Give the backbone structure.
Amino acid sequence: MKSYILKRILSLIPVLLIVSIVVFMIIHLTPGDPAAVILGPEASHEDVKQLQEELGLNDPVYQQYFHWVEGVFQGNLGDSFFMDKPVTEAILEHLGPTISLAILSQITAILIALPLGIMAARKRGTATDQTFMGLSLLGISIPHFLFGLFLIIILAINLRWLPVAGYKPLSAGFWEHIKYLIMPAIALGTGQAALIARMTRSSMVETLNLNFIKTARSKGLHERKVIYKHTLRNAFIPILTVIGQTFGTLVAGAAVTETVFNIPGIGQLIINSVERRDYMVIQGTVLMVTLTYVLINLLVDLLYGVIDPRVRLKKES
Amino acid sequence: MEVAVEKRRELSDFRRDINRERRRLFVRRFFSNKLTVTGSVIILLTLLVTLLGPLLSSYTPYEMVVTSRLKAPSADHLFGTDNLGRDLFARVVYGARASMGVGLSVAIITSVLGMIIGLYSAYYKVLDHVLMRICDGLMAFPAILLAIALMAALGTKIDNVIIALAAVFTPYVARVVRSAALVVREQTYIEAMKAQGASSMRIIWGHIAPNTLSPLIVYSTFIFADAIIIEAGLSFLGVGVPAPDPSWGNILFDGKLVIFNAWWMTFFPGVAIILSVLGLNLFGDGLRDLLDPHTNHAKK
């Protein structure tokens, strides 16, 4: 197991190398001089020159890269031009809403997906199964942000049940906090639920066909025990993978949904920085989010061994 | 000598018959599969609307009439008008060109690039290490995030949307082609061809490539769908297809500004996105069932 963990962690090195190069190149892919782009068309020649100097843009590219990576290892992602503060500080300020939203969406997704997926697997081939699967296909085909817009029109504008958009931190009270996050969580959660439900169904169907389930049934075990204790546990690895992956996308890919609901999270930070051409923030945020995404996937991978002893043994041998 | 020629002709006739029979069977199964049929009908309709756009509407998508701003759907304006008094039907129909166009271009470009990268890395071990690490690195990014970052770097232009999305999705396609190609590469007949001295060019393109086509086609249908979703997201954020050209995403962007009094500006482009993506997903799912014997087996 130890050697597996080590191998898995070592395999991240080339991935992170590529990630860092791509993120670093964002500023250099911009057509024209980055300093001039950042300062805008009204900037004087001297200002541009000075910024070039400050950013080290006159150094050879590889030197700039090493300089940047060095900074990253020291926890220094540079400073935001627009907000006049370190990028790390800006990220920390925007982290709370994104995490709250991700957790709430994930709970929504699992609550919808697992029961539906299990039910579809138990009734496979029937009309119930087909309806659920049709719904999940629809769930995959609706972009989250679009579903969010539809929810706003129905739940907030017509029925006036929930606030249209905005965000209140947890310190404003639990209900206040949740109230603003219900619609975005449903919007994000249902799409993820569709993916998780599909995987739950197919993994359950596969396990239900195995012999030990037949044995469990023929020895007279209660159906509920067969489903939850025997089938679900054995079918859980692929389900967990999808849950892990979707959590990664929730932390990372909620950008558009955050914009729809005006939630001051990481996604909004990125979008605002793109509009302001605040490249240091774009680079820093994209890097941090991607690192989180990679780490979550690593964690999920390592969790397999904990959940399923078979994986642990297979990897050891 | 004559006998040999005769035998060879018989063999080629036999092969032709088998291929014809296979094709006939595939066509029959294609049309008896509900998913593929529904999917293709939706996609064909969407493509038809995309191509016939100008003939379907008497308005242009750019013409602003200040007096008829935010009119609800009526016989005159089928989908209503937008906040600048432009006919929404015309904008949604013309918007299909941007949205479907980006999706299709991305699907085609990623298929070609992904195929080349996938095939060569499956065939040459050294290339494999380098190319697959690059793919892993690119796939480590959440798709929409990489797309936003690339758009920030390249600038908002429809061509750049295509470039950014191609960069995002090519690694996924390359992976799919590579894993299909790896299976073929291990077959004995490839071994035999190498022994006969066939060039690697001929082995790769003549014998391995055709065997990777079915997973590739299925996968690029999903890429087509995903590209439509991400393009809509980018344009909705204002970093995709720039105004005044309509795309479904940037109509939604305008619609968000007036969401309190004009539901139709969100509803119609929204339905267009859902329908086209759903059509492609249905088609892809059905096609996968048809082409992949494993899923057929699992279904039983």
About this structure: Chain B is about 80% helix and 0% strand. Chain B touches chain A at residues 133-134, 136-138, 140-146, 148-155, 225, 229, 232-233, 236-239, 252, 255-256, 259-260, 263, 266-267, 270, 273-274, 277-278, 281-282, 285, 298 (CB under 8 Å).
